[in-house]
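Predict the holo structure. Ligand: flavin mononucleotide.
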Amino acid sequence: MADLSTNLCGLKLQNPLVLASGPLSWNAVGIRAAFAAGAAAVVTKTIRPQATVNPKPHIASMGRGSLLNTEGWSDLPAARWIEQELPSLAGRSGVLIASLGHTPAEVKQLAGPLAEAGADALELVSYRAEDAAPMVAAAKQIISVPVLIKVSANWPNLLEAVEACLRAGADGVTAIDSIGPTLRVDVETGRPLLDAFAWLSGAAILPIALRTVAEICLRHDAPVVGTGGVGRAGDVVEMVMSGATAVGVHTAPLLRGLDWFGKTLARLERWLDEHNHARLSDLRGAALPHLREPVPCASLTFAFDAETCTHCGRCVTACAYAARRLTPEGEMLLDETVCRSCGLCASVCPTGALRVK
Ligand SMILES: Cc1cc2nc3c(=O)[nH]c(=O)nc-3n(C[C@H](O)[C@H](O)[C@H](O)COP(=O)(O)O)c2cc1C
Ligand code: SF4
Ligand code: SF4
């Protein structure tokens, strides 16, 4: 059976799955349930000195595995986390990461008490890119447990912020937070979902998360918790191939239930076995050497297998230049004088009958 374990900043994770910060990790009971369901690590809901008060409602499904939210940080104050929730998790089965926001002053106040209360690591998070490195520097002066910095793809200078955080001593990076502000409108009522600009998470943000993880990993060797839009075992593999050391997730188990963890781990193991990979960690960064600037090159050549072609016609429909034709006898014809080698026809083929060689 394939080895799923990974090492995050010196902390051994039994598998790559980290429950990212959010409503499922709102208190010790939620965190214990996530460990029991199979999460190797759990990040608490973000802790600040005072509890937040959320608007009602503050989470809405957008369909297709994605959510909008206007939720703030933890609705429990820091004192409750330090005195009750974290200490009650002693003897847990996984790695406990305390999420701490949002300013350097709050880090100075709470990093020490949260580490003493039992957190294995801290994840610092801020809405402002310019606060990230000072928060890391403040934490590293106080605590010896690993410090992760959570970054947002909303930041225009994301890579500069990551660089500054690593220079300030961050042990790892969590990428990414939910994306926004965004907007959806319910056309039946004419009202915006949640009556506000809101933050987007889940399947819709996976490609942005993958790109961000890859950009960081192309430049730095630091461990990255690739987070955003993961919903299937294949998405976990994509995150690791894009450079992630561990994989964070919140929307998928929130929508589908905590047994998402066990099901996804079983599918991940099966996929690795079927593809003869002994260790998930062997795949880390596999996609990165293939990232390149688009360059002019020779025309594509195609392989066509008449046996597996179902004559669905999708490849013909998808060609903007009408370069393809499928004859009634099942012969695939290509007019090379108009084909631009864009590759879309092979990409839409559902059976693999048409492939780029
Ligand atoms: C309802 C909700 C609340 C969240 N609250 C927090 C939070 O308190 N702190 C934080 O760092 N991230 C928070 N997040 C962001 C998630 O940790 C995660 O980075 C983001 O949702 C992308 O992952 P996903 O697509 O798997 O959900 C929240 C996400 C959701 C959906
Ligand atoms: S590669 Fe692009 S242009 Fe050529 S046949 Fe396929 S879809 Fe048409
Ligand atoms: S998309 Fe694939 S299966 Fe469908 S007609 Fe084209 S080659 Fe055949």
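Residues 163 and 214 are 14 Å apart (CA to CA). The longest helix spans residues 260-274.
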